[in-house]
Automatic annotation (TrEMBL):
The UniProt record lists the keyword DNA-binding: yes
Domain of life: Bacteria
An annotated Gene Ontology molecular function: sequence-specific DNA binding
Domain HTH araC/xylS-type as annotated: residue spans: 280-376
Entry keyword set: DNA-binding, Membrane, Transcription, Transcription regulation, Transmembrane, Transmembrane helix
TM annotation in the entry: 6-22, 34-51, 71-87, 99-123, 129-159, 171-197, 203-222
Protein name: AraC family transcriptional regulator
Listed InterPro entries: Homeodomain-like_sf (IPR009057), HTH_AraC (IPR018060), HTH_AraC-typ_CS (IPR018062)
PROSITE patterns attached to this UniProt entry: HTH_ARAC_FAMILY_1, HTH_ARAC_FAMILY_2
Length: 378
């Protein structure tokens, strides 16, 4: 009873946390949405485990359709996409995203075809068809023992390029926890399949580990990692979340609540939103961007935008935005895709309005002119 209660709490928390990440503009980003999908997948996997414990599949056989789908193929895919989007949020990776779901799609189609016979009884698969499905099942097994370990291992090489050390630390821990869970599940499943072991007790333990990962993600990923330290403020934002609605952001309130005005630190919720707009939405590429436009997007006054930026970064608003533009140019210089671009073109693409503004800002941020930086980086 206590065991299933713990699982049900984790299922509920995983679904709610996933919805909060997708629903709230404070958390929502191209990378975090995959974290939400990862939590949903873990919750579904735990739910099927609860169904098995409660013998729901006997009372409701059609639930076998959900249970027989190998949801575990989605876990390394969502985890990898979460990490790769944290490291590099450019469009070139998004075109290949669907490739990571091919093993899951293949497994799902194969199992559904099989279940339409054995579970639903809609048709009967002939003996020749059963032989083909058995062969295809071996391919599914091959995908399991190659795809499931490969993506987490490859993620360790990708995550090295993450610049934020604090962010890197907790993501590496998340990656390690999920990887260990996947490897343990894979070894257990193979032992049950090939050696005919009773793996029910081990699967119970792994399900408990999955609940821990969900709870840990909620605590460390959300509360500890500066994404939602102020619970009262989060409640306010979640109930007035239309303050930001990507990509067209609307004004909800002209002035932030007084209690949030008084606390201007790196944890300030409006500054966190501004960081998201710069890092994920790349608003700095708009050459006409100014304090008023940003204030409109955040639903606060232009003066408060300046106050936040000045207090937290020690720089004025223009320099804060130009730093993002300079970083974008530096990335273009080191990216072979832009080798045919002139330096001025890179500057204009990043949001600078003229050569003079671009060169002055670049020199101020890096201590070098764009030409000097390009030559030194070769």
């Amino acid at each position: 009873m206590i065991y299933t209660t713990l699982l049900n709490i984790a299922i509920f928390q995983g679904i709610v946390l996933g919805l909060v990440i997708l629903r709230s503009s404070l958390f929502n980003s191209n990378s975090n949405k995959y974290l939400a999908y990862l939590l949903f997948t873990l919750s579904i996997k735990l739910l099927t485990h609860v169904f098995d414990i409660q013998k729901a599949f006997i009372s409701y056989p059609l639930l076998r359709f959900i249970d027989n789908i190998e949801w575990v193929f989605l876990i390394p895919a969502f985890l990898f996409l979460f990490i790769i989007n944290k490291v590099d949020n450019t469009e070139k990776h998004k075109l290949r995203n669907y490739l990571y779901f091919i093993p899951f799609a293949y497994s799902a189609v194969l199992n559904i075809i099989n279940d339409l016979d054995y579970v639903a009884g809609i048709y009967t698969i002939p003996e020749s068809g059963i032989a083909i499905i058995s062969i295809l099942g071996l391919l599914q097994l091959f995908l399991a023992v190659t795809f499931i370990p490969f993506l987490p291992i490859y993620s360790y090489f990708v995550i090295r390029h993450l610049k934020d050390s604090q962010e890197k630390k907790w993501i590496i821990t998340l990656l390690t926890l999920v990887s260990l869970l996947l490897f343990a599940w894979l070894i257990t499943a193979l032992a049950g399949l090939l050696l005919n072991y009773d793996i029910s007790s081990t699967m119970n333990a792994l399900a408990l580990c999955a609940t821990f990962i969900i709870h840990w993600t909620a605590y460390i990923g959300i509360y500890k990692y500066k994404l939602a330290k102020n619970k009262d403020a989060i409640y306010n934002f979640l109930n007035n979340d239309s303050a930001i609605s990507y990509p067209n952001l609307q004004i909800v309130q002209n002035n932030p609540p007084q209690e949030y005005k008084e606390s201007i630190t790196a944890d300030n919720l409006y500054f966190q939103k501004l960081e998201l707009l710069c890092k994920d939405q790349h608003i700095y590429t708009d050459s006409t961007l100014n304090r008023e436009k940003v204030a409109e997007k955040l639903g606060i006054s232009a003066g408060y935008v300046s106050q936040i930026v000045n207090t937290i970064t020690g720089d004025n608003f223009a320099h804060y935005i130009n730093q993002y533009r300079v970083e974008a140019v530096k990335e273009m210089i080191s990216d072979p895709e832009y080798e045919n671009y002139t330096l001025l073109t890179m500057g204009l693409e990043s949001g600078f309005t003229s050569k003079t503004t671009f060169y002055n800002a670049f020199k101020k941020v890096t201590g070098q002119t764009p030409n000097e930086y390009k030559n030194s980086s070769k």
